[in-house]
Amino acid sequence: MFSFWEKKSFKKYDYIIVGAGITGLSTAASLVEKYPRAKIAVLERGFLPTGASTKNAGFACFGSLSEIASDLETMSETELTQLVESRLNGLEKLRNRLGDKKIGYKNYGGYELILDKQVPYLEKLEEINNLLQPIFEGQNVFKTKDGLIEGFGFNARYVRRIVYNRFEGQIHTGKMMKSLLKYVQKRGVTIFTGCEVIDFEDVENENTDKKNSVVVRIKNPLQNDLSENLAIELTASKVAICTNAFSKKLLPSLDLQAGRGQVLATKPLKYLRFKGTFHLDEGFYYFRNFGKRIILGGGRNMDFEGETTTKLETTELILEDLKSKLSEIIIPKQKFEIDTTWAGIMAFTESSKTKIPLLENHSKNVVLGVRLGGMGVALGSKLGEEIAQKMINEQ
Ligand SMILES: Cc1cc2nc3c(=O)[nH]c(=O)nc-3n(C[C@H](O)[C@H](O)[C@H](O)COP(=O)(O)OP(=O)(O)OC[C@H]3O[C@@H](n4cnc5c(N)ncnc54)[C@H](O)[C@@H]3O)c2cc1C
Prior knowledge:
The chain has helices at 4-10, 22-34, 65-71, 77-98, 100-103, 125-132, 148-151, 173-186, 316-330, 376-393; strands spanning 12-18, 40-43, 59-60, 110-114, 142-144, 161-165, 169-170, 190-192, 197-203, 213-218, 232-241, 257-266, 277-280, 285-290, 293-298, 338-348, 358-363, 366-370. By secondary structure, the chain is of the alpha/beta class. The protein is globular.
């Protein structure tokens, strides 16, 4: 039940965005940049954004050699180059919007560790460089740097070659999300946390005072204390659904599948001989330095079925696998201790192998921008801009 004052100040918005991950916040940023006086609310179910955006590894990347080569088996050259370009544009937008210092951007470069299985991908190096040249102003993206295997201290029994990409960087994920939250809040966007949207209705035609608006219903956190079922209803002219891996709860028929990613961070090591972001085993594993720590994630390939879940939990199986990658391949001569472990949830397609996000009008006043896969740090700002544009275009 809203009071007179609440109705006047909190109930009606021009734009409501569901989900405060990088996509939702970037959508809010693009809208408020264009319409500084618009009433914009972001509704987030968690105390913090609770999906992938605060849980990722902070690679500012657009695809490793083997990932791009294997994507070319399922996507056309045009689709793939457009996707790589969108990732690049997204990264540029994020850096320009927030500033490198505020997101902890470091240009240490990216590397791919080539194991026996990936050696054939090296034959594609020149072809892929040629394909990407128009996006990178005529420059080659990938080159081999095998001398680094020993220099970085990797186990040469497993690591056959190293491919270097000087265009890849890394960010401090926590700083980036904190800055993005601050950026939109400073410009007047209201963020409601602990606010789970349970459903919404696009009232396109009904002849009521709600005509041409969207009613968004939120779970009332006080509901258990009350005898009536009181979902909170807000309204907006336009709504964006940016709930990524959790979207099926709102829209069960979407072509979307959740994929959990588990991560560990070591305590600072005595010696760490590398800096940068590293891809291993066709992107199934990824690690980076953070100061003298290693942050390592991946291993979904150990248990695809079990990892098709939205549960934010780690498992013994995958964490043990990650630890063995550290001791066998990455830092074979060093003892390490684990500081923290965690999980985050990504979204992929269920029916195909495309990595292109899902951006569409769900109905006249509701835009959907989800399914960012494993490179949403790069894509999020660009997708947010496109979602905002779609919301504006429909007016
Ligand atoms: C372990 C891991 C490592 C990764 N590493 C990288 C990397 O190094 N580089 C990279 O580019 N990408 C990486 N990614 C992918 C990237 O983090 C994601 O693609 C990106 O963060 C997706 O952003 P999003 O805003 O679309 O989704 P999310 O960040 O998941 O945001 C969706 C938000 O919606 C909220 N929500 C869901 N349902 C509701 C509801 N009903 N009501 C209200 N709120 C709701 C959720 O709580 C969540 O905060 C990684 C992902 C994971 C999981």
